């Protein structure tokens, strides 16, 4: 991941949580089978701040609550430009590959499953997204988050290059 990740504090934020996937895990012991659940959750304020978390517990509700708590601990700020992402981005995590492309107003969120949950939580309204390779929700969420954290707006690019904002576009 790039070095422009900004961590965000959870105080005074209205975060909405979305459940991406629940997985029932079975452990075979001497006394029989023991069931537990793992839940992957995405939280965001739908205005550029998003985080994901994984919760594991013997009950579904407890696993979701733990996932929400974990997600609140790793919130990041994502640049959003007019309801879409600033530029195209390709990212990979494990076997999951993700491609994000900005879309014009009114297009909607054209993304599937786990990617849709992350993109809606961050507050993107118009985007074209494609997942290639693995459809594992854990890796898809992580690949989408990687792609979003690597996004850079024009102001960040100008600061990084040490030039003025209009020189980035006319330069």
Question: Mind explaining what this structure looks like?
Answer:
This protein is of the alpha+beta class and 171 residues long. The strands form 2 sheets. A 4-stranded antiparallel β-sheet has the order 1-2-3-4. A 4-stranded mixed β-sheet has the order 5-6-8-7. Helix 2 links the parallel strand 7 and strand 8. The longest helix is centred in the middle third of the chain and has 14 residues. 30% of the residues are buried. The model has no long low-confidence stretch (mean pLDDT 88).
Question: Any key phrases for this structure?
Answer:
171 residues, alpha+beta, 5 helices, elongated
> Number of helical segments?
5
Q: Which structural category fits the helices and strands?
A: alpha+beta
Secondary structure: helix percent = 25-40%
The SSE order reads EEEHEEEEHEHHH
């Amino acid at each position: 991941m790039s070095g422009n990740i900004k961590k965000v504090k959870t105080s005074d934020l209205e975060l909405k949580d979305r459940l991406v996937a629940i997985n029932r895990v079975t452990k075979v012991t001497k006394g029989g089978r023991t069931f537990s659940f793992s839940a992957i959750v995405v939280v965001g304020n739908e205005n550029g701040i998003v985080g994901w978390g994984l919760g594991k517990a013997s009950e579904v509700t407890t696993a979701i609550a733990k996932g929400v708590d974990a997600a609140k601990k790793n919130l990041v700020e994502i640049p959003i430009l007019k309801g879409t992402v600033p530029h195209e981005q390709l990212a990979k995590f494990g076997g999951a590959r993700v491609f994000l492309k900005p879309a014009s107003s009114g297009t909607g969120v054209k993304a599937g499953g786990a990617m849709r949950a992350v993109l809606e939580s961050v507050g993107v309204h118009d985007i074209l997204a494609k997942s290639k390779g693995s459809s594992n929700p854990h890796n898809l969420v992580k690949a989408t988050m990687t792609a979003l954290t690597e996004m850079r707006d024009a102001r960040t690019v100008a600061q990084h290059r040490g030039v003025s904002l209009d020189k980035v576009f006319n330069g």
